[in-house]
## 1
Amino acid sequence: MARLVLSEGCGLAPLRLRGGGRGAIAPPPPPALAAGPRRPAPAAIHRDWALRVSAPTRLTSVVEEDKRSVEETEVAAAANSGAEFDPGAPPPFGLAEIRAAIPKHCWVKDPWRSMTYVLRDVLVVLGLAAAAAHLDSWLVWPLYWAAQGTMFWALFVLGHDCGHGSFSNNAKLNSVVGHILHSSILVPYHGWRISHRTHHQNHGHVEKDESWHPLPQKLYNSLDFMTKKLRFTMPFPLLAFPLYLFARSPGKSGSHFNPNSSLFQPNEKKDIVTSTASWLAMVGILAGLTFVMGPVQMLKLYAIPYLVFVAWLDMVTYLHHHGHEDKLPWYRGKEWSYLRGGLTTLDRDYGLINNIHHDIGTHVIHHLFPQIPHYHLVEATEAAKPVLGKYYKEPKKSGGCDATLSILLRTSNCCARDHCYDEARL
């Protein structure tokens, strides 16, 4: 997806961090630290099914992260004890403390409950399509496009849960349901699951995060006119997801469909072949339906809702990782940690849409603990707030669309100095 570019002259609001504390700018790390600390290799992928569909790969061990954050926690506790809140200091708590505050039942995955959400969404999608086709009125079609595109987005969120393994403890069920849901909306399940895993493992790291992160000025200047136009000029960034699947973000190479892409490990190649084949099968189904029903009818029933879904995906993912009035910083080198990166995400309140897209707006706890099922995220967030304290910012109820348009318009065609993203985070 498109990535944000920042500059002092592009009109963004100054850093205004959660809790009202003052921001701190960290000096650029020495070249030797630019690559950042090495992360442990992902857990081995299980392959016990005839179709070689893999189980979702687990994120970096939180136990290791807890051990790593002990010293940071002690330093931060001393720094913040009896003093003014310092947003540049490491958080005065670790992952273990946040996890301990979350009720144990919030970690329980109920496959039957998860499947009821799938059944609900699929029935709504089919019902909307049948009703729109039957009425076939231009008074109805715009309403159908908005509703169906939103339901496509809901299907994507459920497939996203399958990729995290929060859908159920059954790896085969996660993979089968994930393939069906994601392929139906033209998303390669394993390809996106793996790149999304990279995002979770490196969020907030300006050089290693997968998408929506700042570009250095030199890289931005090296982009051709068309790339700049499509990536940083409204409304194109809201439709960036398909391009991201085929060509990733500026400065990165590879494709979510190519098993030889640098996105994937050698032992993941067969998974990518499986997902690409499922994607192609869906393209074939759509082609057959177009032949039977006609291109105009398929445009109205599927293509336009698909574009609405893409806009939802790009808008929501952007809003969860960038502020509107608040400018969230990025780390690199030793300044970054899994906990700090997770705390740079934002919760968003989408009102009536919260239930429709499965409470994906409760994003902070999801980023820290993606194994928690979506139907427990709200309760888990409420339980964790006393621990997070000033590090948690209550979501705004002003809606997301205006904020997204404002952010993207204000960052259009801006570029960043090489070190302008070296801001310390809460």
## 2
Amino acid sequence: MDALILARAQFAFTVSFHFLLPAFSIGLASYLAVLEGLWLRTGRGVYANLYRYWLKIFAVVFAMGVVSGLVMSYEFGTNWSVFSDKAGPVIGPLMAYEVLTAFFLEAGFLGVMLFGINKVGKGLHFVATLAVAVGTFISAFWILSVNSWMQTPVGYEIGANGQFLPGSSWTAIIFNPSFPYRLVHTVIAAYLTTAFAVGAVGAWHLLKDRANPGARTMFSMAMWMAAIVAPIQIAAGDAHGLNTLEHQPAKVMAMEGHFQSHPHGAPLILFGWPDQAAQTVRGTIEIPKASSLILKHDPDAALMGLDTIPGADQPPVAIVFWAFRIMVGLGFAMAGLGLWTLIARLRGRLYDSPLLHRAALAMGPAGFIAVLAGWTVTEVGRQPFTVYGLLRTADSAAPLAAPAVAASLAAFAVVYFTVFGAGFWYVVKLMGHAPHAGESGLDGAPIRTAGITPAPALTEGEPA
């Protein structure tokens, strides 16, 4: 493999690890804010105990997310230095805004959130939790603005040295055509990822003890999120797909497996094997004209195919095709589980159905797999460009020799699987312990605030 393929593999490896962690921490930070808000409003100790329980997990996940993100800055300066030079005047300030807003906000309040629960008042601690939750969203805002500009570049000028320079309006760059759709779709995906992880943990403990109040509460809250938000995500994904069809048609052609144009209605290919060399999908199972109905809301509408795109500008179809189906399939599975829990709730069987709990446990990793599949569709579908239609990936890489890139890729693989493998193992170990009354936090003490004796509801025998 040449240096370009190795550099792409290295960035794909590191960004995939990194993307899993913020996807979890964004949703988990908001979940913690909801738990603390409910505790302050109702005084029920179960919410305080769940807050302590998930706070320990959040601390580990957040720390791993920060560390894994630092590596990509290194890669921008080594493997992708040409890209950094050409696109830096546009994307550099946006990434700096993330540091000046999200990072400073999180850094300023994270310590209070993690270690100040027994040292500051209830109100101030809740503000700290809210600040961290808002900080994670702001971080997603800026990072997705950068990525969306690379997908749908606008508001730039080309300098004499070939650099992308900001035009007259930063607003056009920040709020580029795909950004609102990508932001909504990704943040909802983060919330669903967290909901199904929390729901799986709740289901695991319900299978062992149906009367555990913490397990019942977390499972119920997670399944409400699944039932309500999963259908919203499907609608958001449809809107995002229509926006992609407008601005990145080759990506949608690869997602749909449309090598040929269809002037009188395109079929929806459910399954098949894309053969890019032959420009066809083999062994298809398809629904006639359904793709035109979904994308154009007209079964007879014409849809262009990859036969209108030069071969050198086509993305790798097989990867995009299958990643898209994994993402969509898991999305409908999430909505199906949410509907199942609604029916069980109406029948009074939400906590008494082992089959439902096993299904929720099996769906625990679904959000993580779905966000990785969606990210693959987004990034591989943009190929062969880093800045869509303007700067090719082959022209973005640094002039490094393959052995140098291979050595750093091997080093990253060893370190990542060792360090983050241990981190993930520890998170799963924390999840394996059932939440209980008087749950201790990072300081090892039961929850309390300065000068206030721990509430009786936080002792053993706490009411549900």
